[in-house]
Amino acid sequence: MKTTRDKFGTFNGETIYKYSLENDNGMKLSCLNLGCIVTDILVPDREGKFENVVLSFNNVDDYIRYQTYFGAIIGRVAGRIKNSEFELNKKKYLLSANEGKHHLHGGTDGFHEKIWNASTFQTDQEVGVEFTYTSKDGEGGYPGNVHIQVTYTLTNDNRWKVRINGTTDETTLLNMTNHTYFNLSGNGKTDILNHQLTMKSDRFLELDEDLLPTGKIMDVEGTVFDFRHGRKIRDGILSPHPQNTIVGNGYDHPFILSEKKEAIILKEGTNGRKLVIETNQPSVILYSGNSLKEDYAIKEGVPVRKYLGLCLETQGFPDAIHHPHFPSIILEPNQRYMAETTYTFGVE
Question: Which domains does the chain carry?
């Protein structure tokens, strides 16, 4: 097990560092103190070949310029907030509108572009990085001073553990996630259309034309949203279902998880790579990369295109503040926000 730190670039006059974690099996995870961005996850295929299974850039400028959220921590609130406003304790709060009239992924002042304090740690069986950041009262339009701790841990059994803790001194909203784009083909060699996904979910949230939840909870039965027995991502891209076409032909939907253990399994049949995800969060956003632009390239030099990667964003329900029947994302001063997700990499 080992950790290293190298200079990656600069942002707003401050040095951005790349922290690399490596276990005894040769699996390696690298991340930045800019947005807690994950730049590399190197894992073997069934032949033992190590390749990067996440989409990333090789410089700071590209992360800022292209706004893909590749690998970043998202907050204060992941997803969209309708009309960039909400009400708490009879007081109205206005947020920055960065997607039409709506607020997306923390807006123009989100956690994905913050420089975090970072420190590494190591034991016999794991290595990790602990990131901390204090979001001041009024940042992004949100109330309360919120202290966040994000911990990335790499274990000797090829698990990447993400733990997010948060506290506030005033009633506020908090619903965070990691926005890594996975591609198990390795180094972006192919798109993700033939990735096989299995999810323990029998319901998903209906979206409107602005990709906001309508409040209606839909049954997956008989649709291409039924991943309970596994299906290829391609099914949703080719589907004429209105919910697939409304998001640009594919998926960008919150799935309600019915079980936490082995809740999500992603496989790439050609090389045998397998990813198993477990979480304490109530839902996962499956995003199939429908809106990826085509005028830039990832770090391996592969041109970006639709469906080059997919996101599995474990989190609370999006826009929950406007839907009282959704699980609450309100955080009180006497509470602690705790989100945990584990990604286990293997082959079969």
Answer: 2-347 (2.70.98.10)
Within 10 angstroms of residue 73's Cβ, the number of other Cβ atoms is 29
Annotated binding site for beta-D-galactose: 179-181, 252
Q: How confident is the model at residue 10 (pLDDT cuts 50, 70, 90)?
A: very high
**Is 221 a catalytic site residue?**
no
pLDDT digits (tens, 9 = 90+) for 61-107: 999 999 999 999 999 999 999 999 999 999 999 999 999 999 999 99
Binding residues: 179-181, 252
Which tens digit of pLDDT belongs to each residue from 182-192? Answer: 999 999 999 99
34-61 pLDDT, tens digit each:
999 999 999 999 999 999 999 999 999 9
* Burial annotation 260-290 (CB, 10 A radius, 16+ → b, else e): eeebbbbbbeebebbbbbbbebbbbbbbbbb
CA distance 188 to 56: 10
Find the catalytic residue in 102, 179, 195, 253. Answer: 179
Cis before residue 76, ω within 30 degrees of 0? Answer: yes
CA-nearest of 143, 10, 79, 62 to 281 is: 79
Kindly report the backbone phi and psi dihedral angles of residue 108, in degrees, each rounded to the nearest multiple of 5, phi listed first: -75, -5
Residues in the chain: 348
Residue of 103, 253, 313, 323 marked catalytic: 313
Residue 313 bears catalytic tag? yes
